[in-house]
Amino acid sequence: MDQEVKLAELKAKLKNVIKRSVYVYRVDCGGCNGCEIEIFAAISPVYDPERFGIKVVASPRHADVLLFTGPMTRAMRLPAIRAYKAAPDPKIVVAYGACGCSGGIFHDCYCVWGGADSLFPVDVYIPGCPPTPAATLYGLAMALDLLQQKIKGEQLVETEVTRVTPKYEGVCPDLAKDIEREARRLSGYLHGRRIAAQYLEFVREKDPLAVDRKIKELVKQEKDPRLAEIFLSLHKIYMERVGHNAG
Amino acid sequence: MLKLLKKTLQVGQATVEYPFKPVEVAPGFRGKPVYNFSRCIACGACATACPPNAITMDCDLERGIKSWNINYGRCIFCGRCEEVCPTGAIALSAEFELAAARKEDLYCRAEVQLCKCISCGEYFGPSRELEYVLAILKQARLLESGHEGWEQLLKVCPKCRRRKIAGSGAKALGARARF
Known about the structure:
The structure holds 2 protein chains of 2 kinds. Helices cover 47% and strands 11% of the residues of chain A. By secondary structure, chain A is α/β, with parallel strands linked by helices. Chain B is α+β, with helices and mostly antiparallel strands. Chain B is elongated, with a radius of gyration of 25 Å. Chains A and B meet through helix 4, strand 5, helix 5, strand 6 and helix 6 of A and strand 5 and helix 4 of B.
């Protein structure tokens, strides 16, 4: 306990002394190398962390910050401990990536012990799979107390029963389902959802002829032929449903 | 030397000024999944779809609460939760500054109330989900006749419903045909 208090004091001192120049050593405990690629992208001239004095070094004996990437696997735990022991003592431990934070997608594999915090006291968690270079810079700056933490734990409780309204108010759910399904089939979930929402906005008017007119106008003005095609096929479904010929 | 200076002036600055200026992310960037509590019906589709089990749901039948949890430290930002959510309660944002000093800050937890079965008195499903089903039925114009019947049917737990249907012969057959 006494030693821990002492270490915390030393760490505070370290943050004071190193200010903006800090050497980072990364320890790969068994990751997929996505994180490594992203770290190398982060130390490229585009993000250039060396302007803050952040430098990746090749030996843990030079390091102020240890960056643990990948889930803590059984096979890599001893090398990880060796790297940790080799770093001089007031050191900052950063868990990098989803795997480093909690084991990530490998959390329930038989040889995975969890994140870096299953073995070491972690100072900063940088989630992401992998974290982008900007997220890496932010995390390192946070580890050095240059930037403030933005994310906060949340606890939401329902006190009285609230009502959730269906997504497309005033549209028959069957029709909405068919339209959304076709839109997703044609253009993927992300754009499909947006396109379906845009189409169903027209349907809300309930007058098939007005919908027909508006859609045809939209298709005529649309510059992207793919989008026009999708709108037409959605329109076909709607017209079949209301009993008109799509023409 | 002068040649080099000229060249650098021509090429300009390549380094982004990230911590001092916000960095622009690409369209379609998959960042922090943002949860909209007021749209969630606690159906659990996201928890089923989540590949690394970052989103989990569990029921506390004694307190009558179903809870939704996300661990941002485990999330791989695949966007499947957004894809499967029927109400659009969860969507990936452009937020990437997720680093945290404490593990608790990486969690988000939400609790919704469960509905009691009107026949056996046990908690069985989220009240929000039942309300949502009713609203969907109303939009499909299935509720105009026998509004009460539907409501009575929805507020019975699956176990009791099965027992009821099995127990009352011909009448039950009619009820099953309605499904």
